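Hello,

Our lab assistant flagged a job as stuck in the queue for most of the afternoon. It eventually completed. Since we weren't sure the result was trustworthy after the delay, we are filing this so someone can double-check. Below is the sequence as submitted and the structure that was eventually returned. Let us know if re-running is recommended.
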Amino acid sequence: MDLDMRRVRYFVAVAEECSFVRAASRLYMTQPALSRQVRALEEDLGVVLFVRNRQGTVLTRAGRQLLEDAQPMLAMSLAVQQRVRAAGREESHFTVGFMPGVIVTPIVREFSRVAPGVRVEVLHTSITDQVDYLLDGRVDVCFVRLPLPEGMFEVVPLFPEPLVAALPSSHPLAQHKAVCLDDLRNLALLQDHGDVPEWRGPVFRGSAAAQGDSGRFPVTIEERLEAVASGAGCYVMPAGIADFYRRDDVSCLTLEDMAPRMVALAYPKHRTMPELHRFAEISRRMLGPGTN
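-- returned structure --
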C-alpha cells in the first residue's frame, strides 16, 4: 500500500492546527470533506490518528509518529519537484543559504569565477529554519551552525565559533570581557533551555502579551535582543551573530565555560550535483582549518 501524499498533507494540517475546522479553512475545503480524507488515511494505515477530548483534537501515539515522519517527507517531496523543474531549465542554477555572522561573498565570488555557466543565488536563512531550507529544496547548499539531524546531510566542518552571553549594557557584568554561566545564574534565560543544556538558572516565561496564542516567549533574535536591552534576562548566541546584531544597549561577553559550536557547510545526502563538491572544496579552502 502506497501512502496518498495528498491525504498525508491533510493530516499534517489538522495536526498542526489541532482542529479540523481550522485546518479545513487553511486548506480551502469543507470540514466534512477533510474528515473523510483523514478517516480514509486511517483506514489505509489501520490506525487511529486523532482523538477528540476536552482539549480538542489530539494526536494518538500513532498520529505523533506519523507527524514526525510526515513533515520531512513532505518537505523532501517538495524539494524533488523543485529540483526536477530546475534541472529542466537550460541554465544551471545553484542556490546558497547563508545566515548572519558567516561572510560568504568571497566564496560565492570565487565559485562564480570557476563555474561561469552557473547562475548563483544567495538566500538568507536562520538557525531556526536552516534544516527546513535544506529539506524543501529552497537551497542546494547551506552554511549552518551544528548540530544538525544525523544521517540526513553531508556536513563539511569549517571553523569553531565561540558562544557569547548578551546582557543589558547597564548590567554590572557588562564591563567584563568574559563570564561563566554561573555568573549569570540570577538572570532569566531568554531562549529554550534545550539551546543551553548547561544552564542552571531560571528560564524566561514572558508576559501573556509577549507569548501570544502560542504560549511561548519571542523566538527571533531581534525580539530576544530587545528583551535583553529591556532587562528581561540574558541570551546565549554564537559570536558571529552577536557581531552582526551589534547594538549600544546590549553587551556580548565570551562564555569561558562553554565549548565553541562548529560552523559548517551542509547539503542533502545522495545528491550528485557536481557543483556541490566544487562549492564545498572552495568553502573548505577559504574558511576551513588553517585558513586563519
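-- support follow-up --
The delay was a queue issue, not a problem with the job. The result is valid. The domain at 91-160+262-287 is CATH 3.40.190.10 (D-Maltodextrin-Binding Protein; domain 2). The first strand starts at residue 50 and ends at 53.
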